[in-house]
Please model this.
Amino acid sequence: MPFQGLKVVELAGVLAGPAVGMFFSEMGAQVIKIENKRTGGDVTRSWRVAGEDSHVPESAYYNSVNWNKHVRFLDFHSEKDLNEVHELIDHADIVITNFKEGDAFRYRLDADSLRKKNNGLIVAEITGFSDSARLAFDAVLQAETGFMSINGEPGGQPLKLPVAFIDLMAAHQLKEGVLVALIHRLKTGRGSKVRVSLYRSAIASLANQASTYLNTGQVPSATGSLHPSIAPYGEVFPCSDGRLILLAVGSDKQFRELCSLLGLGFLADLSEFATNPARVLNRMGLADQLRPAIKAFRSDDLLDRFIASGVPAAPVNDLHDLFLEAEARSMVLEQTEPDGRISKRVATAVFEWEPYED
Model:
């Protein structure tokens, strides 16, 4: 494993920081997670959906980012416990934090204090807002940075994404920063402080939506699953068996192939559909043409034809459907808990790593 022998101390809760810790645990590092003994540990232990067993000490949410960690319950108000935290960090490679404003200094866990005893330490910090003590949960960031305004159906209520997307993007940003810091340490022997805010991570994740606004002045609006600049892309259609499929046609060549497979070859020669810009302008009329042709096929048959011909499309699966697939099942991690239960989660380190042999 690439990080065998690396020691990580995680002083973070909820999702973003623990997701970074889990990445390193999956890659072989020893990850020691410190949870607040006074409050019953990471708050997500109690974030249960309806039907979850309330007698189990951790929720499915907590399990999602806390695989293979060594958990210790300590109280930072206890000098003995705080000294234990400091001793762990003195011999660590990485410490991950998401303290509220001022807490790092209160407990002498700020980067400047920690580096005095461990100059090779990488301090990885997550904050909500760059220069504010405001509490920041993922939904707050989705609202404030524009994600909710472009998510949902036209004319409908703004919607947040159903996963904590901003937390996950901040975790990826922090992982990138820590990996840069590890390379720097290999070259110099010195540690670093890496700091990521949810706010800046959210703005960076707006990607083409932000670029479109900055270059055109057009404020993006909610379009459901439709892509603002490609068609038919994001359109969903029912098949004869009731199953829904999504199209993601990204080129004129793919569109011609789509029309040919559906027996609608003439559409690709019409001026209102011949090019992508024209299809974006006339996407509703195009959908009206495609809908009955797609409805005539069973989903499996049509998807097989699309795949064989290079037309991007997919079934609209729920999670039950997803985890019937062998590759999805191969990403499931299992852990035996102290009470003998098997808890499950999906892997986060999903890249394939093959070091060259001599």
Notes: Residues 148 and 297 are 35 Å apart (CA to CA). Residues 7-205 form a domain with the Rossmann fold fold (CATH 3.40.50.10540).
